[in-house]
Amino acid sequence: MSFDFDALRRHPDVEGSGLEASDAADRLILDEAAALIGEAGPGEIVVIDDSYGALALAAADAGGRGIRVHQDLVTGERALASNAGRLGSDGKVRSLTLGPDLVSGARLVLMRLPRSLDRLDEVSQLIAAHAGPEVVVVAGGRIKHMSLAMNDMLGQSFGRLDVSRARQKSRVLFAREPVVRPSSDGPSWPRSARHDDLGLTVVAHGGVFAGTGVDIGTRFLLAQLGDAVPDAATAVDLACGTGVVASWLARARPALRVTATDRSASAAASARLTAEANGVSDRVHVTRADGLEALTDASERLIVLNPPFHSDAAISTGIAAHLFADAARALAPGGELWCVWNSHLGYRPLLERVVGRTRQIARNPKFTVTASRRAG
Question: Smallest Cα–Cα separation from 180: which of 116, 251, 131?
């Protein structure tokens, strides 16, 4: 394939050494699907979980038209749009939400295999239920992130599964003959679970961090939040995931209005459903956004954060640094960022430098909770 993968950029996502906009798995998926791309008619190609546009734009370069795309991260969606503009592919691809309209009538689905089996399950069920009966799914990834459980998961939604030869530490799975599972087999997506110890019901789409559970870092953070800027009229749950912190704060403080924000579409959708399940949707506003871009400078007195440290499959502390800087911008003078982090990451000096004076609230063998105050 003659497509110039080196021309792709990750921006506005985190960029840096070891963080590439495409990899060998993208190239293998496209090479294995080359004939199918050539045979597909307008509107018959769908691309799912394409990190920065490599699959969609290379397929467009190979002649695909009317390509429908879904990327979970808003930063990936924007990177695709930016790359399409620079490479002259505007109008050849369009972004949609994850739902029936994305895959309806599709004959070819190109996708990166998600690390989460739950995400793979939700996407597989969607394709099997709404794509064309002759659909072929060409799904690939780096071998180190693949497992036989992925084959089993795809096998629940497709009658035929084939495996490519490995190349450059990557492999591709081909799924054909979609099978629609009967509803009697159990709940589909999203799913929910009750946590009586927290007084919360958590609702999650596939692939959101911790799913319907509540991770131990968040639990440790919640145990400390009673004293977090108690007179604040509003609060922000930054990188909200399923919205556990937002809904917990709204329930604990009946007069509080909470903004929950995450760059993940599945996380934002889950957070909305979690707020609804806990009767606080009237006071929890959820938005899919890159950090706090929707908030004005110096506008918030309380921001709460459990920062992620993965960018796709790569580990990067740059994500936390970006979120800390965004929080510093949005905090009002005297406002505080309450943050939980893996103690070995040693974020306190960074918080001191980027946000302001930082004090330790609590620490256990694995996690540290800090409060960083914006000067002013």
Answer: 131
The answer to whether the CB of 94 falls within 8 A of the CB of 69 is yes
Give 1's pLDDT tier (boundaries 50, 70, 90).
low
Helices (H), 181-257: 216-222, 244-252
Share of the chain above pLDDT 90, in %: 91
Say if strands 358-363 and 314-315 run parallel, antiparallel, or are unpaired. Answer: unpaired
Q: What is the pLDDT, as a whole number, of residue 319? A: 85
Q: What fold characterizes domain 5-184?
A: Rossmann fold (3.40.50)
- pLDDT by residue (tens digit) across 281-312? 999 999 999 999 999 999 999 999 999 864 44
Pairing of strands 136-142, 108-112: parallel
At 275, which helix (H) or strand (E)?
helix 265-277
pLDDT at 311: 45
Q: Where are the domains of the chain?
A: 5-184, 191-373
Asked if 376 and 350 count as a contact pair (C-beta separation under 8 A), the reply is: no
Domain 191-373 CATH assignment equals 3.40.50.150: yes
Q: Do domains 5-184 and 191-373 have the same CATH topology?
A: yes
Instruction: Give the SS3 label for residue 102.
Output: helix
